[in-house]
Amino acid sequence: MTAPTLLAASPAARTDRPPGRTRRAAAPARARETALGLLFALPGLAGLGIFVIFPLFQAVYLATRGNDILGNPTRSVGLAHFQELLTPEFGQVLWQTLVFTVLVVVPGVLLPLALAAPMTQRLPGMRVFRTAFALPFAYSVSAASVVWLIMLNPGISPVNWALGLLGVPAPNWTTEPGWAMATVVGVTVWMVSGFNLLVLAAGLAGVDEEVLEAARMDGATGPRQFVSIVLPMISPSLFFAVVTTTLAALQALGQVQIMTDGGPNGHTRTLVYSIFDNAFHNNNSNFGLASAQGLVLLVIGVLIAVVQFGVLERRVHYR
Known about the structure:
The chain is mainly α. It is 71% helix and 2% strand.
C-alpha cells in the first residue's frame, strides 16, 4: 500500500471530512436503526397495551360505574364501590388473604429446601425420590383439588383411616371453620412444593464443589457450611422461589372454589375468591365492586413486590 493510500485510510484522514457531510451520512443510518428497533419492540408494546394497560384502564372505569343486572356499566357512582370495601367483612377477607399467603409461602419454600438438600447427594434411588416429590408440579389445580377432596372424604378417606388406627379422631377437613383454611393451605403447599423442589435442587446442583471443599478445610461443616456457604450461593434460586410462591398464593382461586367454595361461613374467602364471587359466581355480575377489589389486589401486589425487590433482593448474591 502506498503512502498516499495509507494517509487516506488513516483515522486522521477520516476526521478531515467536513463535519456537516459526516452528520448527513450518519443520519439515515440512525433513522434506520431507530425504525428497526421500533419494529422489533412493536409486538411487545402491543402485548403490553392489550393485556396490561387496557385491562388496567378498564378496571378503573368499571370501578367507578354501576351496572345493570347483566353487568353492563351504567351510571357513574364515583368512589362508591371503594367505600363499600370499608367494612369489617372486607377487612376479614384481607386478613385471611394475608394468613393464607404467609402459611403457603413459608412452608412452600422451606419444605422443598429441606427435601432438595439430601436429594442432591449421589445416593442410589435419589432420582426416583426426586421425581416422586416433584410430581405435584404436573397436577392442574382442578385435578389436585379433586384428588385431595377424595383423600379427605369422610366416607372413603385413607387419611381418616390412618388417624383412626392411631386413635385420633378425624376432623371434618373442609366443613369445620378451624380446619378448612388449614386444608386449603396444605393442598396449596403440596402443589407449589414440586416446582420449588425443582428450582432449589437445580440451585444446589450448581454449587461449586471446590468452594465447599475450601470451606471444609477452613472448618465450616454441617449446618454452619449450609447457612454460611450454601444458602448465599443458592440465594437467587431461593429468591425466585419466594417471589413465584407469593404470586401463586395471592392468585389462588381454583382450590378455594373447588374444596370449600369460600366457606364455611366465609372462613376461606380470600381476596381473589371474593373478586370471582362478585363478578362471576351465581351470575352476580357486580363488575364494579369486583374491579374495585381487583385494584386493591393490584396495590397489595405492588407493595409486596417493592418489599421483595427492595429488601430481600439486596441479600441475593448473583455470581
